[in-house]
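Researcher: Structure prediction, please.
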Amino acid sequence: MKKPNWRNWIENKNDCKAWLDSYINKEIIVKSEGNEKLHYNKAEHNANLSNWLNSKQDDLRTLFDDVFYDWVINSSYYASYHAALALVSKLKFKSKSHAATLCFIIYYYFHDNKLLEKEHLEIVANALNKDDIEIITNSKSLRERASYNIDESFEKGIADDVRKNSLNFINKVRGILEL
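Model: Predicted structure follows.
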């Protein structure tokens, strides 16, 4: 089978279903007890950390002569990831891979019952894409260490966007889970 492409899954329900069936056949997605509340609680836990870190950047700069927007981004992504796992768990499944999780959500929550929109899928896809996370969080150590003001504001902007999108997605998941 070719490399998974989540954008194709959005456009082509049959392709998404074929990948989903493959993940189930390979036992990457398996039946389980519903633990959606535990995953959702973990999502909120990470979102709370992200919000706290974001609000404490001035204090952290004073203490360490550095800012930690990369950790705002990381904790926001983990919040979205656990919210996604809560959706999988609501239907009594668990997933052993990020791609399988995204495929499951696209099929059941986008194609099957239209509870999520493309913008929500984009949030989940970004949260599950390890390469994107590494690029963003490592950017500081590559060339931004000199800490020009424009670089810090760029990183702050990314952190704000990721955090807000994550909170949007978590709130949407809360409604789907009826918590």
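Model: The mean pLDDT is 87.
Researcher: Thanks, that helps.
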